[in-house]
Amino acid sequence: MSGMKTGLLFTGQGAQYTGMGRDLYENSAAAGRVFDLTGEEIKNRCFYGTKEVLRQTRVTQPCIYTVAMAAYEALLEAAGGALKPSGVAGFSLGEYCALTAAGVICDIKKGLEIVTRRGELMSDAGVGEGGAVIGGMTAAFGKRPDILKCVEAARGDGVLEGANFNTPTQTVVAGDMGALSRFRQKAAENRVKVVPLNVSAAFHTTMMERAAEPLRRLLLDTGLQKPRLKVYCNVTGSELGGDVAEIMARQVKSPVLWQETIENMAADGIDTFIELGPGDVLSGMVKKIAPGTATLNVEDMESLKKTVQALISL
After folding, report:
1. If 294 and its partner were Cys, which of 123, 272, 306, 309 is the partner (CB 3.0–4.6 Å)?
2. Which residues contact 35 (CB under 8 A, 6 or more apart)?
3. Do the beta carbons of residue 174 and residue 137 sit within 8 Å?
């Protein structure tokens, strides 16, 4: 791995599982400090929360943010000067971890406040007057143009949009329940495989419009700083620039251009990606988008040690 150029990737919502972060908390002083800072409620939810509790957006977002930042701090402590990232990115919620790592958000406590409020806003935007869930998301597997043709054919007078452009062969479609049902039928007719996702709203679509403006105002009041590292943005797939509060408000209702993000990081010479947070879903996507690159991850002590050894071997 001599001369490798590293990029850090931060996990998004959907990667959560019971017990996430506990091994790091118990064995890494730096990770322990993050969990102690974020508090007992988050700690207990990460370590002991049921699948149903952890899938609730207002719970998931602060929990995953905490685990990902604990993994990041543990890596910083263990790798020392061997960690010299050339850029950072995060998938949806994970972009707030990337902004914290890059110094745009001044510290973890402030980042936690933001993502906690973001989770509340997105959760509220995803329900109707009676509190019923009004939208959902479905992963579709096939060529992007074929999937988007099915979206156009199924939308009708409802809401149906491409929400996550994950890899050349995976696109997540989101919208209202009726439109999603029509989409699944159209997909079946066109031999496009679909898998409904266990989420509580149509994230990254215009159905999140209600969350955008309050989030923008919150970010404006936060005192965001200029990035110390290059941050690759979900909304464009390229380097973050301009009004960060405006861009992050758009992010909540715009598609995540993950394939473009990884392609741009690789085009800038990043050849090794380190995923921080629960699971290794992003690493799997990287392998499909940029197959010539290497992937590492940090979610527990075993993966931390492997990643540190790879960095030190430079």
Report:
1. 272
2. 21, 25, 42, 43, 46, 66, 70
3. yes
Q: In terms of Cα–Cα distance, which of 170, 167, 160, 169 is closest to 139? A: 170
Number of residues assigned to the chain:
314
Supply the residues annotated as catalytic: 92, 204
Closest by CA position to 71, among listed 23, 141, 119: 23
What per-residue confidence (pLDDT) applies to 195? 95
Mean pLDDT score, 174-192: 96
> Rounded to the nearest 5 degrees, what angle is found at the Cα of 233, between the Cα atoms of 229 and 237?
120
**Residue ranges, CATH 3.30.70.250, the chain:** 135-199
> In this structure, are residues 229 and 102 in contact, taking their beta carbons and an 8 Å threshold?
yes
In CATH, 135-199 is 1.10.10.10: no
6-126+207-312 domain in CATH 3.20.20.30? Answer: no
pLDDT band (50, 70, 90) for residue 1: very low
- pLDDT over 90, % of the chain: 91
pTM exceeds 0.70, yes or no: yes
Phi/psi at 130 (nearest 5 deg)? Answer: -85, 5
Mean pLDDT of 160-183: 97
Domain with CATH 3.40.366.10 in the chain: 6-126+207-312
The gap from C-alpha 103 to its chain's centroid, in whole angstroms, comes to 18
**How far apart, in Å, are the Cα atoms of 7 and each of 133, 219, 297?**
36, 25, 11
| Structure-derived torsion over alpha carbons of residues 168, 172, 173, 175, reported in degrees to the nearest 10 | -160
